[in-house]
Automatic annotation (TrEMBL), chain A:
The chain crosses the membrane at residues 19-39, 45-67, 79-100, 106-126, 133-153, 173-196, 217-240, 252-270, 277-299, 305-322. It comes from Geodermatophilus sabuli. This is Monosaccharide ABC transporter membrane protein, CUT2 family. The keyword Secreted does not apply. It holds the Pfam family BPD_transp_2.
UniProtKB/TrEMBL annotation, chain B:
The keyword Kinase does not apply. Residues 9-245, 255-501 form the ABC transporter domain. This is Monosaccharide ABC transporter ATP-binding protein, CUT2 family. Keywords: ATP-binding, Nucleotide-binding, Repeat, Transport. InterPro entries: AAA+_ATPase (IPR003593), ABC_carbohydrate_import_ATPase (IPR050107), ABC_transporter-like_ATP-bd (IPR003439), ABC_transporter-like_CS (IPR017871), P-loop_NTPase (IPR027417). GO terms for molecular function: ATP binding; ATP hydrolysis activity. Pfam families: ABC_tran. It comes from Geodermatophilus sabuli.
Length: 324, 505
């Protein structure tokens, strides 16, 4: 009898479930997709401009998905991420309106606004006890409505310095990619090395258990939604930077994309289980799918169909199944 | 001796009411450091409410909690923990997806400059694990890979990390058996020797008299008696708990008829066992066959295979001479009813009313012009309520509000509406208190008298011994022995179940 068994553990083999849980599964699919694209059109796919396209697509999605990842880990869901990004993008362009001196204060203001939205979510969920789905469904409409009230058409103008962050690149790597890398590093560090990170898994896994063990459940939930709000606002700033103007539909559908990549990455929508590595793999995979439609000169209208097929196929194989 | 050690935690006149019920009525409790204080009582006697108040999960309506003689008011478990009062709940709060170390430190994370101090945490975790006898367990192990017994030890380790002076153990033995129980006792005694005050809640009265230094018995929210454990033996505890003697727990068994109702031939459940033992079994009308064996010996699977819920690898099942096909619906139609082990998830639809649960398996009886008639459903419920003695305020009461015993009666009522010939019972009295148990025993023997064939799986050995004409013993996925008549006793069952005769395994 081995020591592990003696200590009461069951020995286990690496299984598909483990691959899913650790987020490795989606990377395998990603690798397969890259191989397929290399075979289909090596020159086009590996061209720096195309790689830059893919990476650019990951930035906004990735930032927003980091926030969604945190909220889903907490056992919730944030449907307002898209409209929060929209409002942030619209206000960024409108308030900067071409004046370089306004850039920094406006960007900081947007992050604060995102944080404020998060505080509202967190309090409604943790203190009032409303379901996250309902709360953020309501704010999805509220925030989108606010954006339309401000403007129904693209408006404002970001500075050239800000748009350079989104549009210029070194070789295949856009500057804005550094923003994503930094954000990933911060979130990964927070999850792994702070008490909040540990407690987030506990709150999402079993709120009653967390409370019984003295975890400040409300504070943890509010923090998760605040981080999600700030990240959504940051995604909005980069949306504005990329478009150079602010559009009241800039972040349309982003909330669904973020849920998609979080789920593809093997994170449980029930909360408490998830891998950041998996979510990042999901971000890359979805970005790859969108940009490859253009690369392979397929009609753009196919994007949604392909997305649906990819999600269903991946889910059938990898997604954490509901356990009975 | 009792007064030589100081009282750490005291409850004085605690009263708590919920709509329609006084859960706790002027209850007192005194916990002294270094002593194990057993808290016993039937389900609903107020143990949980008392514990919830002591640990900050609930505030009392009246009365006070004293810590070292000073009045305290815990509005939140955090506050109780900060004062050194922790609980290990019956429903384990170990998070399966987290590591053992993270679980032990949950809510007590040691940080330096905002970051988790891994070295400090690791030291604490290892020290706490060592004290609960898991010194050689790697703290990085995922909690879901631990046995239930060890998950429970992780919970106790948590309480140690919090420097708890009072630890409440709520039914710690519910998930344990045999040597696991012994090691729990060793840990509990060790904690007491270190000066921790232990409150120990249990249904198993033998272990109470074994382990405890003091005993407090609760009934209907009141403290019935309290005193040193030496003053108590099992019969006295039961008397105090129930308020009367319960010697006539098992009603006399009826004489079975000659007619074979259930005939099982060569039945083998689909399973991973290499050498399955085929089951041949005849159960006559009015006969009760008990199935014993350790947890995991395949008892439940066998039962579910007879009921058509679990696929058969081989064999046939006949009821009153007619073959029973596989498939739950078809087996039900053939006259087989299974009262499942998981009452709350498989036996009942908890959010529905007691009326709706009672008629669920036989909706055809309550149709009127092709549509459900609530009026007819109520009539059906009231018939069963009278027949089985179901304690429910009215037909629309939510099933989740009933006690375990009354819930189990609803499950029985649901199947009885279909007039089954064969009744399969899986752990029929789990989570049911002493009084309701004997009622269920009477109901089951009553059904046998009416000509039903009964097969009952139970982990409660006295129940199997007291209620069965014959006892089948399971081991390793199949039935390995059968006892009848005077051979039915505890030793014989355990010998077969554990294979102590030394035959191969």
């Amino acid at each position: 009898m081995s020591a592990a068994v003696a200590a009461g553990t069951r020995p286990r083999r690496i299984s598909l479930a483990d691959l899913t849980r650790t987020g490795a599964a989606v990377w395998i699919v990603l690798l397969a997709a890259v191989l397929a694209l290399t075979v289909a059109d090596a020159g086009g796919f590996w061209a720096p401009a195309n790689i830059a396209n893919v990476l650019t697509a990951t930035v906004v999605l990735g930032l927003a998905a980091l926030g969604q990842h945190l909220v889903v880990l907490s056992g919730g869901i944030d449907l307002s991420i898209g409209s929060a990004a929209t409002l942030s993008a619209l206000l960024t362009a409108l308030l900067i309106n071409g004046y370089p001196i306004r850039t920094a204060p406006v960007v900081i203001g947007m992050l604060l606004l995102g944080g404020l939205i998060g505080v509202l979510h967190g309090l409604l969920v943790a203190r009032v006890g409303l379901p996250p789905f309902i709360v953020t469904l309501a704010t999805l409409y509220l925030i989108q409505g606010a954006a339309f009230t401000i403007s129904t058409t693209p408006t404002g103008r970001v500075t050239s310095a800000l748009s350079a962050v989104a549009l210029e690149r070194i070789g295949p790597v856009p500057y804005s990619f550094a923003v994503l890398v930094l954000a990933v590093a911060v979130v990964a560090f927070v999850l792994a090395r702070t008490a909040f990170g540990r407690q987030l898994y506990a709150v999402g896994g079993d709120p009653a258990a967390a409370r019984a063990n003295g975890v400040p459940v409300a504070r943890v939930l509010v923090t998760a939604y605040v981080l999600a709000g700030v990240l959504a606002a940051l995604a909005g700033v980069l949306l504005a930077a990329r478009a150079t103007v602010g559009s009241p539909t800039a972040g349309l559908g982003l909330e669904l994309s973020t849920i998609t990549v979080v789920v593809l990455g093997g994170t449980s929508l029930l909360g408490g289980r998830g891998s950041l590595v998996g979510t990042l793999g999901g971000v890359l995979l979805l970005s790859l799918v969108s940009s490859s439609v253009t690369l392979l000169q397929l009609p753009a209208t196919l994007t949604d169909l392909i997305r649906g097929v990819v999600i269903l196929a991946a889910a059938a194989i990898f997604v954490t199944r509901a356990r009975r | 001796m009792t007064s030589s050690t100081a009282a750490v935690l005291q409850a004085r006149g605690l009263t708590k009411s919920f709509p329609g019920v006084r859960a706790l009525d002027r209850a007192d409790l005194t916990c002294r450091s270094g002593r194990v204080h057993a808290l016993v009582g039937e389900n609903g006697a107020g143990k949980s409410t008392l514990v919830r108040i002591l640990t900050g999960n609930q505030l009392p309506d009246e009365g006070e909690v004293l810590l070292d003689g000073r009045s305290v008011r815990f509005a939140d478990p955090r506050e109780a923990m900060a004062e050194g009062v922790s609980a290990v709940y019956q429903e384990l709060t170990v998070l399966p997806a987290m590591s053992v170390g993270d679980n032990v430190m949950l809510g007590q994370e040691r940080t330096s400059r905002g970051l988790i101090d891994r070295a400090a945490q690791d030291r604490e975790v290892r020290a706490a694990l060592a004290r609960v006898g898991l010194g050689d367990l790697d703290p990085r192990t995922r909690a879901e890979d631990l046995s239930l017994a060890n998950q429970q030890m992780v919970e106790i380790a948590r309480a140690l990390v919090r420097r708890s002076r009072v630890i409440v153990l709520d039914e710690p033995s519910a998930v344990l058996s045999g040597d696991k129980l012994e090691s729990l006792f060793t840990v509990v005694r060790g904690l007491a020797a270190d000066g921790v005050a232990i409150v120990y809640i249990s249904h198993l009265l033998e272990e109470v008299t074994d382990l405890a230094d003091d005993v407090t018995v609760l009934r209907d929210g009141r403290v019935v008696s309290t005193g040193p454990a030496g003053d108590y033996d099992v019969p006295r505890i039961i008397r105090d708990m129930v308020g009367r003697d319960v010697d006539a727990v098992f009603p006399p068994l009826p004489e079975p008829a000659d007619e074979v109702v259930l005939a099982v031939r060569g039945l083998v459940p689909v399973s991973s066992t290499r050498s399955p033992v085929a089951l041949d079994l005849d159960v006559r009308a009015g006969e009760i066959v008990g199935v014993a064996g350790m947890v995991g010996s395949g008892r439940s699977r066998l039962l579910r295979t007879i009921a058509g819920e679990h696929p058969r690898a081989a064999g046939t099942v006949e009821v009153a001479g007619r073959p029973v096909p596989t498939g739950t619906r078809r087996a039900i139609a053939a006259g087989v009813a299974l009262v499942p082990e998981e009452r709350k998830t498989e036996g009942l639809v908890l959010p529905l009313s007691v009326r709706a649960n009672t008629t669920l398996a036989a909706l055809g009886q309550v149709l009127r012009g092709g549509f459900l008639s609530t009026r007819r459903e109520r009539v059906v419920f009231q018939e069963e309520q009278a027949r089985l003695g179901i304690k429910a305020s009215d037909p629309e009461q939510g099933t989740w509000q009933l006690s375990g015993g009354n819930q189990q009666k609803i499950v029985l009522a649901k199947w009885l509406r279909r007039g089954p010939r064969v009744l399969l019972l899986d752990e029929p009295t789990r989570g049911v208190d002493v009084g309701a148990k004997s009622e269920i025993y009477r109901l089951v023997t009553g059904l046998a008298v009416e000509g039903m064939a009964v097969v009952m799986v139970s982990s409660d050995l006295p129940e199997v011994l007291g209620l069965s004409h014959r006892v089948l013993v399971c081991r390793g996925g199949g039935v390995v022995g059968e006892l009848a008549g005077d051979d039915i006793n505890e030793e014989n069952v355990m010998h077969v179940a554990l294979d102590t005769a030394g035959t191969s395994r």
